[in-house]
Task: inverse folding
């Protein structure tokens, strides 16, 4: 998120862990005028399909005979991701979510939905303790989560 939007986003999350915003606001906050959630979902679908196909091909290779079962399980996971992403097309809305980070420059976020809650993880690299900082994120979801849980990890 550009610095120009950071303070505004932090203020919007002062008394809330998640706030629904509209698509023009998400585009402005991220400085991405062409941001389209369905385009992102379609790219994720293509990537997951490619990963599933790769695992299925690897499972056929005699060199990977011992791993074939596991590769097919991975392929099935990717196919489930494809199905879920296809179901989400046209149904997501942007939300501003409060997250936490340790070292921003060496890390990244991932998030997942469990029951009615959103779990946000930030993993990073580092060699010493770092103070946690709040960081607003824009995440596209089908509905507002009942709660948001944050956790961080650091590897050396």
Result:
């Amino acid at each position: 998120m550009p610095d120009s939007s950071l303070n505004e986003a932090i203020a919007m999350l002062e008394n809330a862990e998640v706030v629904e915003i509209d698509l023009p606001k998400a585009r402005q906050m991220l400085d991405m005028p062409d941001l389209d959630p369905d385009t992102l979902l379609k790219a994720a679908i293509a990537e997951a399909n490619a990963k599933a196909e790769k695992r299925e091909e690897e499972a056929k290779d005699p060199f990977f005979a011992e791993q074939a079962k596991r590769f097919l399980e991975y392929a099935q996971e990717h196919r489930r991701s494809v199905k879920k992403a296809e179901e989400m097309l046209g149904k997501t809305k942007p939300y501003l979510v409060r997250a936490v980070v340790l070292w921003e420059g060496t890390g990244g976020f991932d998030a997942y939905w469990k029951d009615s809650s959103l779990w946000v993880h930030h993993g990073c690299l580092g060699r010493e303790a770092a103070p946690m900082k709040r960081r607003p994120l824009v995440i596209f979801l089908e509905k507002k989560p009942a709660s948001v849980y944050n956790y961080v990890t650091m590897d050396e």
In short: The chain has a mean pLDDT of 93. Helices lie at 3-12, 23-30, 37-60, 68-88. Residues 37-88 form one domain.
